[in-house]
Amino acid sequence: MVGRVGRIAQYVFAAALVVPACSDDDGGEDAIGLGDGAIGTCLLFADDVGAEVDELPVVDCAVEHSHEIFAVLEHPDDVYPGFDVLEDFAQTECLGSFEPYVGVGAFDSELFYSWLVPSLDGWNDAEDREILCVLGRQDAALMTGSMRESNI
Question: Are residues 58 and 125 in contact, defined by beta-carbon separation less than 8 angstroms?
Fold first, then answer.
C-alpha cells in the first residue's frame, strides 16, 4: 500500500496506544516520508510491540487490523523539540483531525485515538518530522474495513 525504500525511521508510541492484535513481523513498511498518502492506511500491531518501531505493519483494510492512520502531521520546528513537545502537539492536532475523518467527535466515538511521534534518532538521522495519528477500537477488538466516515 505505502512502499518506501531506504532509511527507516524510528517512531515512539504514545503511552496510551493499545496494541491488541497478534501478527508476525513480515512485510512491514518503512515509515519515512509517508505524507498524506498514508491517511487511511491500516496497521496490525503485535501484542508485544515495543515503545519504538522501525517499520509499520501495514495490512489491507479489508482484513482485520488494530489501527488506522487518520492524519499525518508535521511539527514546524527544524530542531528536535523533545518528546514532551511532540506529545502535546500530537494530542491537540490529532484530536482536531479525528472528527473530520471518522464523522463523530472523539469523545462520542467507540474509537480511541493515539499517535506515533518521531524519535530523536529518526528526526536527526532520517530527517523524519511526521507524526502519525492512529485510531483503534476502545474495546481493543480488531476492525475490518476503513473507519473513514464510519460515524462510530
Answer: no
Residue spans of the domains in the chain: they are 11-137
With H, G, I as helix, E, B as strand and everything else as coil, classify residue 35.
Answer: helix
The predicted pLDDT at position 5 comes to: 25
Q: Cell digits for 42?
A: 491500516
Distance CA 51, CA 10 (A): 10
pTM: 0.79
Residues listed for the chain:
152
Question: Sign of the CA dihedral 28, 33, 36, 37?
Answer: negative
What number is the average pLDDT over the span 17-31?
38
25 pLDDT more than 70: no
Write out the three cell numbers for 65: 487490523
Q: Mean pLDDT over residues 89-116, rounded?
A: 96
- Those residues with Cβ within 8 angstroms of residue 120's Cβ, 6 or more apart along the chain or in another chain: 80, 83
Q: If you ran DSSP here, which 8-state letter would residue 26 be given?
A: T
